[in-house]
Design goal:
Number of strands of chain B: 0
Number of helices of chain B: 8
Shape of chain A: elongated
Oligomer: heterodimer
Strand content of chain B: under 5%
Strand content of chain A: under 5%
Order of helices and strands of chain B: HHHHHHHH
Number of helices of chain A: 8
Radius of gyration of chain A: 21 Å
Order of helices and strands of chain A: HHHHHHHH
Number of strands of chain A: 0
Distance between the termini of chain B: 67 Å
Helix content of chain B: over 70%
Largest sheet of chain B: none
């Protein structure tokens, strides 16, 4: 089989540049390492501002199911994002649809609850803007950390990797918001808690599409390789 | 015996790649030599012959850059070909974008139409260019080559081909009075 004429020159150039590298850990190990920080951050934030009726709410199976499904959706999204950053670990669509299914199930669990009403003081948008702000604040740092972690890999489905990163960070923030925000009104939760997660996934996917694929074509051997 | 795709060969590649991650240049040479035929065949089925060497180079450079993402407990080939596939797609996407940018820059101003220059004006303008400028216009616009391909034909670097191309367009527009 004929090999390209530039093969020998390239091989010598790359062999001269080879240095020890610190190997990327498995997606599961990376997910667990990453999860430790947002879990601590969100737990701290949630404990400091727990909703007054949390004990009552935790006696409602549908509420526990809803929060559990959101947490599972966040976990799977994170795991899939880390898999998307390893060239040979790209998951088939099944994992993605499982994450979507978990979020849909969480929404179904939410809608099966009585719901409650919006507080008398403050309008729908005013109260909701506060929740949106908190959701974004809780998700921002985990998202940045996740994006940077994914950049250290080599995503071959950049848009999907970005979307999963956005979904993971905002779903985790949603979990925290459900134990912080005392409002259970369906429209409020869907509009100001969950919708931002969808928007964040789309925006993060767009960012991933332009940013995560840059490893593929650059001028020469990496300057980012770290000695092992 | 042809040992293509044998478990022994697959295992050897995994071991070589693990050594590469520890900085072993001999293992790197052995591995790259070993994968060259199958990688070239893989790319040949996806790239025009004129682009093969460029894409091949991009793939090897990408493999080098992201070698830390390989897990030595897993088979080497799926990792390699996932990278090769993605790099090839990215390469052709970039080529298409570059060509489109050039066309957007230049094509409307040299279009032949009611308000644009006539054929004889274009021919006159082309005659007014230097042979080097004419060659750049011909390769980049008429034949539609990439900067890399045009550079190979001109015997220069892609960067110089790009500069030459832009100077030629500028001169061409000036001669057309655009």
């Amino acid at each position: 089989m004929e090999i390209p004429r530039n093969h020998r020159g390239l091989v010598e150039r790359l062999a001269a540049d080879v240095r020890p590298v610190s190997r990327l850990r498995s997606p599961t190990a990376r997910m667990l390492a990453w999860m430790a920080f947002p879990a601590a951050l969100l737990t701290g934030a949630a404990v400091a501002h727990l909703r007054a009726d949390l004990a009552d709410r935790l006696r409602a199976p549908t509420f526990v199911l809803e929060v559990g499904l959101l947490a599972a959706g966040a976990g799977i999204s994170t795991w899939l994002a880390f898999r998307a950053a390893a060239p040979d670990r790209r998951s088939a669509g099944g994992g993605f649809w499982l994450a979507v299914g978990l979020v849909v199930a969480a929404v179904a669990a939410l809608l099966s609850e009585p719901g409650g009403s919006l507080p008398a003081s403050g309008g729908f948008a005013t109260v909701g803007a506060g929740c949106l702000e908190k959701t974004v604040a809780l998700a921002a740092l985990p998202w940045v950390m996740l994006v940077l972690a994914l950049r250290r890999g080599a995503p071959v489905v950049p848009a999907m990797g970005g979307a999963l990163a956005g979904a993971a960070a905002f779903l985790l923030a949603n979990v925290a918001m459900r134990v912080v925000c005392p409002i259970d009104a369906h429209l409020h939760v869907l509009t100001w808690h969950l919708l931002p997660a969808g928007v964040a996934a789309v925006l993060s996917g767009a960012l991933g599409a332009t940013w995560f694929g840059r490893w593929a074509l650059s001028a020469g051997p990496s300057r980012r390789q770290r000695p092992g | 015996m042809d040992e293509r795709d044998t478990p022994e060969r697959a295992l050897r590649r995994m071991q070589w790649m693990e050594q590469v991650q520890r900085g072993d240049d001999d293992a790197y040479r052995a591995l790259l030599d070993d994968i060259a035929p199958s990688l070239a065949a893989f790319l040949r089925s996806r790239a025009p012959a004129a682009d093969l060497e460029d894409v091949y180079q991009e793939v090897l450079l990408a493999v080098h850059r992201v070698r830390h993402t390989y897990d030595p407990r897993r088979p080497f080939e799926p990792w390699l070909f996932a990278i090769a596939r993605f790099v090839a797609v990215s390469y052709f996407r970039r080529q298409t974008r570059v060509r489109r940018e050039v066309l957007v820059d230049v094509a409307p101003e040299v279009a032949v139409g009611d308000d644009g220059p006539g054929r004889h004006q274009i021919a006159e303008a082309l005659r007014g260019l230097s042979p080097t400028e004419r060659e750049a216009i011909r390769l980049l616009q008429v034949e539609g080559l990439s900067f890399e391909q045009a550079a190979a034909r001109m015997g220069t670097t892609p960067g110089a081909a790009k500069v030459r191309g832009h100077r030629a367009y500028k001169a061409f527009r000036r001669l057309l009075g655009a």
